[in-house]
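Structure representation.

___
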Amino acid sequence: MSADMPAANIEEVVRDFLAAMEARDLGRAEALLDEKFTMVFPGSGEMHCLEDLVAWAASRYRFVRKRIAGFDSFAEGEHATVVCHGELDGEWPDGTPFAGVRFIDRFELRCGRIVRQQVWNDLALVRR
């Protein structure tokens, strides 16, 4: 990847990752990750593998879908940053639906692979 790489290409990596995670296709999602991948969600602490995320999230919600409103992206050399934002829909562990919860995800990429994901959302504000 170079500074000339179109934002759409780096955004496509993030879209593919999010789609794979929503489908719980962890193998497909892991193929997009750098070997030094880390992620942080609200209240999670740092995690290094997707299985840890799935286990951590299991007591918080049954499932979640992201309705992406937009992306902001930039690249310099081998490094890129993609920020996506929108709203979350899903179900709490008891099956009660939720919708319209704001989120922001920030991704750092190196050579087209995701190195870090940071997540901010308002789930704690709407949790029953």
Observations:
- The longest helix spans residues 7-22.
- The longest strand covers residues 63-76.
